[in-house]
């Protein structure tokens, strides 16, 4: 390609590791970087590969990363979940001010809360609009559960190729229940 700044041609692309600026602590490997051949210019151009799905990969990698979540990571994960600060406060049973303290690194999340956030990220596709945990917990004046849980055993049988160990485990679970 031609350099937009000086019109000289660019050198062949080199694959480099570049920071992913939308999220903290994330680098993208194998990004094509083209440098202008005019040494007085020095402009470089980055050609990002197809970034479809990149946010999901980043979010799941951040949620699986060892060590505690810092404020930037909490903010990225919250936004990726589609939660406002109010939403996060509601889902994680804290005050809205607490969310901003997490995101500004004023306080660390409590470990159980952090685990819940990580599990929400890992299970986002199951959350959807059905994330009603806080509604379920917050049923007014109800200290005991609503009704006994009933499981329909007439649901479709598992496919024939399911391993014997799996079906044995299912029997064991049934006996325990
Ligand atoms: Zn140039």
Topology:
Layout: E1 14-19, E2 27-35, E3 44-47, H1 54-64, H2 71-80, H3 85-91, H4 96-103, H5 111-122, H6 124-127, H7 133-137, H8 164-176
Antiparallel strand pairs: 1-2, 2-3
Helix pairs in contact: 1-2, 1-5, 3-4
What do these coordinates show?
With 177 residues, the protein is α+β, with helices and mostly antiparallel strands. The chain folds into 2 domains: 1-50; 54-137, 434 Repressor (Amino-terminal Domain) (Orthogonal Bundle). 40% of the residues lie in helices and 11% in strands. The chain has 8 helices and 3 strands; from the N terminus they run βββαααααααα. The relative contact order is 0.09. Mean pLDDT is 83; it is low at 162-177. It binds zinc ion (ZN).
């Amino acid at each position: 390609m031609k350099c937009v700044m000086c019109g000289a041609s660019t050198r062949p692309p080199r694959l480099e590791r570049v920071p992913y600026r939308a999220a903290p602590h994330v680098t993208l490997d194998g990004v094509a970087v083209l440098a202008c051949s005019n040494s007085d210019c020095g402009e470089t151009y980055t050609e990002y590969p197809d970034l479809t799905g990149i946010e999901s990969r980043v979010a799941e990698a951040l949620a699986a990363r060892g060590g505690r979540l810092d404020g930037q990571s909490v903010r990225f994960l919250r936004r990726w979940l589609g939660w406002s600060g109010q939403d996060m406060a509601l889902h994680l049973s804290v005050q809205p001010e607490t969310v901003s303290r997490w995101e500004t690194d004023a306080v660390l999340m409590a470990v159980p809360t952090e685990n819940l956030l990580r599990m929400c990220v890992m299970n986002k596709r199951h959350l959807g609009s059905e994330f009603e945990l806080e509604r379920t917990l917050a049923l007014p004046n109800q200290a005991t559960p609503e009704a006994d849980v009933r499981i329909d055993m007439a649901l479709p049988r598992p496919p024939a190729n399911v391993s014997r160990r799996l079906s044995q485990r299912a029997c064991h679970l049934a006996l325990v229940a």
